[in-house]
Every structure is written in structure tokens, then in C-alpha cells.
Design a protein that fits this description.
Distance between the termini: 49 Å
Structural class: alpha/beta
CATH superfamily of the largest domain: Glycoside hydrolase/deacetylase
Number of helices: 14
CATH topology of the largest domain: TIM Barrel
Radius of gyration: 23 Å
Order of helices and strands: HEHEEHEHEHHHEHEEEEEHEHEHHHH
CATH architecture of the largest domain: Alpha-Beta Barrel
Number of domains: 2
Oligomer: single chain
Strand content: 5-15%
Shape: globular
């Protein structure tokens, strides 16, 4: 029996050594990532901008629901608005033979109701505007796909799209929705620094007019961006970039995302010292996502010492009233259930989360070593890279068991959570 015990111990020791040799960078990065001292939940909603007046009604209803939900600190639920500041002036573009791009911005009087709904929600603390692009595409890419050399079927589909009073960027082909590359021809090509700088200045001017200041947080369209984009954002006042945990820099020959060029964790830094946050939990009621999905994700993220950022889109909350009301109702159910399950839950904006990740002395940061070890073990167990070794060697079960033991002993309430 003693020999068997020693063999088992040796096996797991060897397995742990192999894991450390092959995945030391992952293990170290997981340890360095900040651990939060209490659950954090943020709703991140993209693509809001010019549209029909019904969009303003949706924003007002969302604001009402969010304001009715409060954490134990009295903070209302927060939804970030990834703002797309303009739409193409389709009729004018078509009238000009699709040779010149023209736009209508959120500053236009036609979109006053939407603009005022955003501003009112931001003033009440339920909305947090974020930078999501002047358009949800690169204008020259759109014109290229409307040109005579383009695929006839795609060209006609885009001409039909431009006929709408307010074309919805959600209806564009996926490759075209990447703003920060030229996807007029595939594979995509990088934009010139001068074109990026000009576009950033134009975007900043509209955002400053609408909200009085440029948002601190940027969300890359379709998560395709590069160093030049980060530098330009930082030069305009952006200090935080939302990511899916990876960075993509181009579209391949089929229009799909090329392989990621960087693995990203909460608190990592980019060009211009921007702080990265990770958003990788999807909540799209139109696609069948329900509140239970949010609760499961919140449980897992909290155990890992991470914030839960829900990715959702305008498309869930617009359209026929019955669909809009159902989506808003499901969001409300998700947030109320989260408050019930986690009495110490905190609502905040993504900009506030980024400040916590930057500040090692923040009361929201965990300092208890046992809790940090528990969070680290749970992160390692959830990593895709080491998954095969963890499964084959059985080390994954050991890590989960130790994590559960540490959690059962200590994860009732951190001594720092009273300050959260």
C-alpha cells in the first residue's frame, strides 16, 4: 500500500513537472492576472447608433430596467453602449454612382431621440458609452465591394442594403464589418497610419459632440485591430480596450478571422499603455441564450476571481416589440437572479473595472493568498492549452479537488469584500 501511494505521488509529481515545462507561460500569466475580491457583472452591448426612433424607445426601456436593479452598495446595473456614430447616406451614395462615401452621423437632428436617450441613460449611470467606430466597416472597403470589379451578387446585395433609410451594419457580410482593416479584397490588408489617424479624429469629434467627452473604452469591431489602432486610440484619450481574450489582425482569403496574434488576459497592457479587459461570455436572447447561461458563467468567473462581462448586441433589443420585450425581460431575469445568488455582487462600468485592474491597492483586489491560489487553480483547470495533459494524467481532477477544498474553506467572504 505504501509503495502504491508513492507511485501515485510520483506520477502526479511528474505530471505537474510536465505541465510546468510545457505550459509555464500560461501558468505564470494566470497567476499574474489580478484576482477580484467580489463578483462583478457588466452588460456590454454593441452597435448602438443612428437608427429609427423605435431604437430610442428600446434604450429608454433598458434604462428603466437597469435602474430598478441595485447591488448592495446601491449601484444600479450598468450596460455599456458600443457606439457606432454614423450610418451611410445610402441614397446619396447610390445617386453618386457609388464612387464617393457619404455619411449621416449621430449628431444629425434626425437621430435626436436616440442621442437624448443615450445621454439621459449615461447621466443616470445606467449607460456607459464606448468607442465602437464611426462606422462598423471601413468606407473604402464598402465602395470597393460596390465597384464594377466586385462580385455581381454581392454588389447587388449591398446596393439593396443602401436603399434602407438607416442601413443596419449587422446585415453586412462578416468580413466587411471589420473596420480596422481593408476588406474590400480578401485577404484583408492593413490601413495606412495616415488613414487611421484621420478616421480617429473624425470619430472623436462626433463622440465629443454627442457625449461631451471621448469615451475611455474602445471595442474593436469584430475584434480585428493592431498596434497602430491602439496607438491612435490612446492618442485620443482611450485607456482601455475590450477583447475576447485574443487579438486578430486580419481577415483571411475566405473572409474568416485569421489566426490570433496574441493571447490576452485581464490587466495586460497594449500600445499607449491601454489596459485590456476580457469579454468572453455571450448573452444573445435572439439566439436562445437564457438567464441560466449567465448564472453559470457568473459562478465560474467568480470562482476564478474574474469579472463577468456579457457580450450582447443591439439586434437583441430592436425590431418587433414582442421580441424586444422578451429580450429585455430575459436580461432582467438574468440580473435579478445574479443578485439573488451573489449578495455581494457589484455592478460597474468597464472603465471602472479597468481602473481596478490597474490599481494593485484597490479594495476590489484580492490579497488573501489562499483565495488567490484557489482562483489560480480554477483558471488553470479551465485553460484550453493544458487541457490534454490535465485529462490524460488525471491532474485536472486533482487541481479541481484542491480548488474545491480551498473554496469550501475560505470562499465565503473575503476580509476585503466589506470595502467593495
Amino acid at each position: 500500500m505504501h509503495t502504491l501511494f508513492l507511485l501515485i505521488l510520483a506520477w502526479f509529481a511528474a505530471s505537474a513537472g510536465l505541465l510546468a515545462v510545457l505550459h509555464w507561460r500560461t501558468l505564470l500569466a494566470s497567476w499574474r492576472e489580478p484576482v477580484l475580491a467580489c463578483p462583478v457583472l457588466i452588460v456590454e452591448s454593441d452597435d448602438w447608433g443612428p437608427g429609427p426612433s423605435e431604437d430610442a424607445a428600446a434604450l429608454q426601456e433598458l434604462a428603466r430596467v437597469l435602474e430598478s436593479l441595485r447591488d448592495e452598495g446601491g449601484r444600479c446595473a450598468v450596460m455599456t453602449l458600443g457606439v457606432v456614430s454614423s450610418v451611410p447616406d445610402g441614397q446619396a451614395i447610390l445617386a453618386g454612382g457609388c464612387s464617393t462615401y457619404l455619411r449621416r452621423t449621430l449628431a444629425d437632428s434626425a437621430f435626436m431621440a436616440i442621442r437624448e436617450a443615450m445621454q439621459a441613460g449615461a447621466a443616470r449611470g445606467v449607460f456607459a458609452p464606448q468607442w465602437h467606430g464611426l462606422e462598423h466597416f471601413w468606407p473604402d472597403s464598402l465602395l470597393a465591394c460596390l465597384g464594377e470589379r466586385a462580385d455581381p451578387a454581392q454588389r447587388q446585395a449591398l446596393r439593396d442594403w443602401l436603399q434602407a433609410d438607416c442601413p443596419r451594419s449587422e446585415d453586412l457580410p462578416s468580413a466587411l464589418q471589420s473596420r480596422w482593416v481593408d476588406a474590400g479584397r480578401l485577404p484583408s490588408t492593413p490601413l495606412t497610419p495616415s488613414a487611421v489617424a484621420l478616421a480617429m479624429r473624425e470619430e472623436a469629434a462626433v463622440l465629443r459632440y454627442v457625449f461631451g467627452a471621448v469615451p475611455e473604452v474602445a471595442v474593436p469591431n469584430t475584434f480585428v485591430w493592431g498596434d497602430a489602432i491602439e496607438r491612435a486610440w490612446a492618442a485620443c484619450g482611450v485607456s482601455c480596450v475590450v477583447t475576447p481574450g485574443s487579438r486578430y489582425e486580419e481577415r483571411d482569403a475566405t473572409g474568416g478571422l485569421a489566426s490570433p496574434t496574441r493571447r490576452i488576459r485581464n490587466g495586460d497592457r497594449g500600445r499607449g499603455d491601454v489596459c485590456y479587459v476580457v469579454r468572453d461570455v455571450y448573452f444573445e436572447p435572439l439566439r436562445g441564450h437564457r438567464a441560466e447561461h449567465v448564472w453559470q458563467a457568473l459562478e465560474a468567473k467568480t470562482a476564478q476571481g474574474r469579472a463577468t462581462l456579457l457580450e450582447t448586441h443591439r439586434s437583441n433589443f430592436i425590431g418587433p416589440s414582442e421580441m424586444r420585450d422578451a429580450a429585455i425581460g430575459e436580461l432582467e431575469r438574468a440580473l435579478r437572479g445574479a443578485l439573488t445568488d451573489h449578495h455581494d455582487l457589484r455592478f460597474m462600468s468597464t472603465a471602472e473595472l479597468a481602473q481596478i485592474l490597474r490599481d494593485a491597492e484597490s479594495p476590489f483586489r484580492e490579497r488573501d493568498l489562499r483565495r488567490r491560489v484557489e482562483a489560480w487553480l480554477r483558471r488553470v483547470a479551465a485553460e484550453a492549452g493544458p487541457a490534454r495533459i490535465l485529462k490524460i494524467t488525471g491532474l485536472g481532477s486533482v487541481i479541481r479537488t484542491v480548488g474545491n477544498f480551498l473554496g469550501g474553506v475560505n470562499f465565503r467572504r473575503s476580509r476585503y469584500q466589506a470595502d467593495c
